[in-house]
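Progress report, Aim 2. The chain analyzed during this reporting quarter is listed below.
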Amino acid sequence: MPTPTYNYTGTVVLVTGAGRGIGFAIARDFARFGATVFLNDIDSARASRATAELVKQGLDAYAAPGDVADPDQVAWVFQHIDTKAGRLDVLVNNAGIEPVASILEHSLEDWQRTLDVNLTAAFLCTRQAGKRMKAQGGGVILNIASIAGKAQPLYLRSAYAASKAGLVGFTKEAAREFAAYGIRVNAVCPGVIITPMTERLRQNPEQMARWRSEIPLGRLGEPQEVSALCLWLASDAASYVTGVAWHVDGGKNMA
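Predicted structure tokens for the chain:
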């Protein structure tokens, strides 16, 4: 099957949590199709390394480090984009954490931090991006949620599942409100993807066998397969698509 071709020349994209994994793949692939990309990560060194890797490939990329759960740091990130690019066309809310704990033992601190990073950060960034996109007359916002928040809760991950379910709901409400401004909002819900976040579990042969048995396509997903959906959703080919939570899970959840 031929690889779809997009032209994102002149498009400015912000990806949060872009220092590695899915976020990095999304930033890289937008840049490969001509976009100017801003790579956010809470780890400034990781953001700088990821950005340098793209620049070395001749791509147009800037580091935009900061904790997107902090309103002041979010404001700085968007001011940085204003200064460097003067506009924002696509926001990808990808930053996320996944603590593992029983509900009976989950600390309030870890619960709150998960909601802050996985959900509140998306609200803070969407609020900033929405103001700019409304003034421009349009834009695209993509929220990287999870099948855990839509159809497949994960064992010992109550905070993660709750935050991702909230992100799906937020996506639909934002899509409804922002439609009048020409801003489309969708969610992408990955299944099990080969990233640093799943690395520890992937070392367990029993867990790998269980995953493969539950996924009709019989394998784990690659970050670029999540990125491919983001490229389409942000393109004119998806101009009539908004308010939807899309699975990228190899058929694990057919709902």
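Strands lie at 12-15, 36-39, 61-63, 90-93, 139-144, 183-190, 245-248. Residues 108-136 form the longest helix (29 residues). These observations will guide the mutagenesis work planned for the next reporting period.
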